[in-house]
Amino acid sequence: MLESRMSSATDQDQTTHAALYRLLRWYADMGVDLAIDPLPHDRFAEARRPPPQAQAEAPRPVAPPLPASRPAPARIASEALPTEAAIRSAQESAAAAQSLEELRAQLLAFQGCALKATATQLVFADGNPEADIMLVGEAPGADEDRQGVPFIGRAGQLLDKMLAAIKLDRSQVYIANVVPWRPPGNRTPTPAETAACLPFLRRQIELVDPKILVCLGAPSAQTLLGVKDGIMRLRGRWIDCRLGEATIPALPMLHPAYLLRQPAHKKLAWQDLRELARAIDALTSNH
Domains in the chain, ordered, with CATH? Predict the structure, then answer.
């Protein structure tokens, strides 16, 4: 009897822990990744209190005004343009940029993507803009959002090791993302957010003019190459990326963040790295 009760209590504890974990994951997916009050509140006790009319009137605290230099995030998000207008605005702004510096300035001024309101800062690019190899990921994470540089968290550290395996480093490649602002809670960018940012990425690729494009992960490959296949079907295959009249050979690869979750697939990544190395050798010999 005692063992039965202990087993029941253990099962109940496990169920409670699982429920709490799912709740925390839901909050994270919704973008709640920062506490706004150092003390917990018993909302049930507050709900049982008498209505405000039955309590003595007390002066209500007034929230301090937001700094004039930075508008409230909700206001910026509400001012984001509708999708079609945002895409047109992005296309016009991107086309006007004649250098990477101008393109970065256009992105800083762009109001067509609501992610700008929730991100800490723009994550534009890293590496050598004169490089022949350009790598494109999906979107910045928390570390990238804090420092304004793509691929510097755990996935970025693995990417550096992957490059080193074929005798490359960041001085020999150029790195960017499809979306240059971090989505709340590291969620997947919506199709509208991706569409609003895509003209800037396409112009960024045109300005860098790489000889080889590496798409890290399915979202990058699907967005740039116009395909719907998953990354396991796409990886290791050369696919043409068309930008206006130009065509750039692109190699989809597994994203380093995926490899951190599925280390057994690093052998596939090594196959793709060797394919990339062969293409770089051929490019060098042709020069």
Answer: 73-286 (3.40.470.10)
